[in-house]
Design brief:
- The protein is about 40% helix and about 20% strand.
- By secondary structure, it is α/β, with parallel strands linked by helices.
- The chain has a single domain, classed as Aldolase class I (TIM Barrel, Alpha-Beta Barrel), CATH 3.20.20.
- Strands 1, 2, 3, 4, 5, 6, 7, 8 and 9 form a 9-stranded mixed sheet that branches.
- Helix 3 crosses helix 4.
- The longest helix has 15 residues.
- The radius of gyration is 18 Å and the shape is globular.
- The structure holds iron/sulfur cluster.
- Iron/sulfur cluster binds next to loops.
Length: about 280
């Protein structure tokens, strides 16, 4: 067998798919780079669809492919585990055109990328935001897990866009829980907090969301998380968004693979906005 073939097979085996109790921990920045090799091509990025959903009072959404975490409560499609199998490549112009078409049809004034980590494929995102900036739309909501925004240069580049509002979604309140819930190494727990510091430093519009569903976050873990946010800036607590886990089919599958059982409430909130 050729060296190339062996390397390809190793890559296929090693790429983190579902998180299980025996999964090897990964560095999310390295996983971001590996995923980018699959979902980014020059300034193009893979998307599966574009349409309007009801969250944020109506928002045109591009469903992108690829993430650098493996959250056990994640709702997005199986493109997260198998990015090579889903989506088509779109240039920033093509993605903007599809968002614009969807937004005009339903008369909404907000845009976003969802279903993936939008900060992957940096060149694509920055060029897309240039188009949004020159458009009549009010806002582009950048929903992120914050991993790549620990890079201050990236945040500095984003700060030139006045229509961007960032939503940083925190997954856990301690390094151990972060690792258990996302599959990433414990040391990566600090990266989203670094991202928040960068967003403050560069004056971006943003707020913080926390997956604080009491079924997967203890009161003690939540208290630790809130203390940490408060130590960065007390106002972060005033605009905190708290999330719950919803029983999407993909969420149920991921919880099962991770060996986690949750009790389901009768009425779940439709949250189609987790990152
Ligand atoms: S919840 Fe968000 S950050 Fe976590 S795996 Fe899903 S898309 Fe990625």
């Amino acid at each position: 067998m050729s060296v190339r073939k062996v390397k390809k097979m190793q890559g296929e085996v090693m790429y983190p798919r579902f998180l299980t109790p025996t999964s090897a921990k990964f560095d999310p920045v390295e996983l971001a780079r590996r995923t980018e090799r699959i979902v980014c091509r020059g300034n193009k990025r893979k998307y599966t669809d574009f349409y309007v959903v009801g969250v944020y009072g109506g928002i045109a959404t591009g469903y992108a492919v690829g993430c650098c975490l493996r959250c056990v409560f994640c709702w997005v499609g199986l493109s997260r585990e198998f990015p090579e199998r889903f989506g088509k490549f779109y240039s920033p112009e093509e993605a903007f055109m599809r968002l614009d078409e969807a937004a005009r049809r339903r008369r909404v004034r907000k845009l976003r990328i969802s279903g993936a980590e939008p900060t992957l494929c940096r060149q694509h995102l920055l060029e897309l935001l240039e188009l949004v900036e020159r458009s009549p739309y009010d806002v582009f909501i950048l929903e992120t897990n914050g991993i790549l925004l620990a890079d201050e240069d990236y945040v500095a580049e984003l700060s030139r866009f006045k229509k961007v509002h960032v939503r940083v979604s925190l997954k856990a309140g301690t390094p151990e829980e972060f690792s258990k819930k996302t599959g990433a190494v414990e040391s990566a727990f600090e990266l989203p907090f670094e991202a928040i510091r960068n967003l403050i430093k560069h004056g971006l519009s943003f707020h913080v969301a926390v997956m604080s569903d009491p079924r997967i976050m203890s009161a003690e873990e939540r208290a630790n998380l809130l203390r940490k946010l408060k130590s960065i800036e007390p106002r972060l607590l005033k605009m905190l968004e708290e999330e719950v886990v919803d029983p999407y089919e993909t969420t149920l599958l991921r919880l099962e693979k991770a060996g986690i059982r949750l009790k389901w409430r009768r009425a779940g909130r439709c949250s189609d906005n987790l990152t």
